[in-house]
Design brief:
Shape: globular
Oligomer: single chain
Number of strands: 6
Strand content: 15-25%
Order of helices and strands: HEEEHEHEHE
Structural class: alpha/beta
Radius of gyration: 16 Å
Distance between the termini: 34 Å
Number of helices: 4
Length: 179
């Protein structure tokens, strides 16, 4: 399966983070996506997708060990509310995995509201109660990937595309935070 160039490193790093949690014991909710369906042997896996579920409107009446919000927070009108609702749905010791773009073109689906740096995402999550001391974050990007993806999403070609990280040009950001 082809992978977008801008997601290769992010996908590798988030896989590593989830593997370290012991996925076979996790009850997982993925918010507004299903990219983790079948990727790991989770104890249970559910999807709550927009517009049927709006993570800004309130928590679900269920609890989870891991909530994944991949490429969601840039589309939220109320990201603080969403982070609070995610925090409320997690069992004590549970985790949230958030990924967001930074230097990527605007993409309304249905709206495009914000971009997040590692520092910004860390402090948003800490503000709602996540443990800043155990949070793990990362980012990746480079000028060539930014330029290539500015007008369309480009599939990664190992023989043509570099995965070199230029920290001053982050395209994507990820954070794993614990309640």
């Amino acid at each position: 399966m082809a992978e977008h160039w801008c997601r290769v490193v992010m996908n590798r790093e988030t896989e590593r983070l989830v593997d370290a949690l012991g996925p076979q014991s996790l009850r997982v909710l993925e918010v507004s996506g299903n990219s983790w369906s079948g990727r790991k042997p989770f104890a249970s896996y559910a999807v709550a997708a927009y517009p049927a579920y709006d993570v800004c409107a309130g928590p679900l009446d269920a609890s989870f060990d891991l909530i994944i919000a991949e490429q969601v927070f840039e589309h939220l009108l109320w990201p603080y509310r969403a982070a609070l609702n995610i925090f409320e749905m997690l069992d004590p010791g549970g985790h949230v995995l958030v990924t967001t773009p930074f230097l990527i073109k605007r993409h309304d689906a249905p709206v495009d509201c914000s971009r997040w740096t590692e520092t910004g995402m860390k402090h948003l999550l800490a503000e709602v109660g996540f443990d800043l001391g155990t949070m793990q974050t990362g980012s990746w990007g480079n000028r060539a990937c930014i330029e290539a993806n500015w007008l369309e999403w480009v599939e990664f070609r190992p023989d043509q595309h570099s995965l070199e990280n230029e920290p001053e040009f982050p395209m994507v950001v990820w954070a794993l935070a614990r309640k």
